[in-house]
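tool_log.txt
---
The assistant was asked to compare two proteins side by side. It first ran the structure predictor on the initial sequence, then on the second. Raw inputs and outputs are pasted verbatim so the downstream comparison step can read them without reformatting.
(1)
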Amino acid sequence: MAPREGTYGLLAEFDTPGDLIRAAQQARLDGWRRMDCYTPYPVEEVAEAIGFHRNKVPLVTLIGGLMGLAAMFLLEVWISVWAYPLNIGGRPTYSWPAFIVPAYEWTILFAGLSAAFGMLALNGLPALYHPLFNAPNFCDGATTDKFFLCLEALDPKFDLVEAKKYLQSFQPVSVVEVEY
């Protein structure tokens, strides 16, 4: 059975992080792939339980740093060799050792900015709306003392009735349908 139009998924509420971790691990083992967990504080085991291993921020930072290095080095070469060459004391116009310190500084600058803006972009921030904000139990306890597992309707295994039975087998506090 296909999910109803406008259904984001099903949200199960748990009282302890251990219950959430067990439910997430079992859901992953049973073939669920489109799910997410929400906790009021970081719980490292949850990321492992849902199979989250993607982190592209280091790659974005490396690319940004290399772009900063190349940009400053090429800028200095262009200025010193082609745009405004100066012959000072018989030194060559292309003197790469003099270009190292500014190029290093731009490497650090571009890497830092790439890390910050890349993290925001990869996290989809700023996000002023999320469908989970429509769930009353999520708004009441997500930032204080409740732990949530959301099975998304985009998952190929998602069937509203079967998914609700499946989540209730973990004995959560509540299971609610989340609408867009």
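(2)
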Amino acid sequence: MNKTSKLTKEEKEILKSVEKGEWRSVPNVRAEIDRYQKIARSSLQKNMRVNIRISAMDIEGIKHRAFQEGIPYQTLMASVIHKYVMGRFVERGVSR
């Protein structure tokens, strides 16, 4: 079995594109990496506190889901809010 057979369809398309020479390095790559690291740090910084009222049933459900994911429930809540704000929240059927 060769290494490319384990790639997803999307990964295979990217590999083909790279092999065709369609990708070019940006000028001053170190400065670009630094710039994007600063953007990521500032966007992930938790510098505001919010108090909300949530039903006991919902908070228990959140804690249960967070436990399943292996993360603190506050982190899960912040992640859900962030994904919603960024338009990346994908609603799925509820499984219980």
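---
observation on (2): The longest helix spans residues 29-44. The mean pLDDT is 87.
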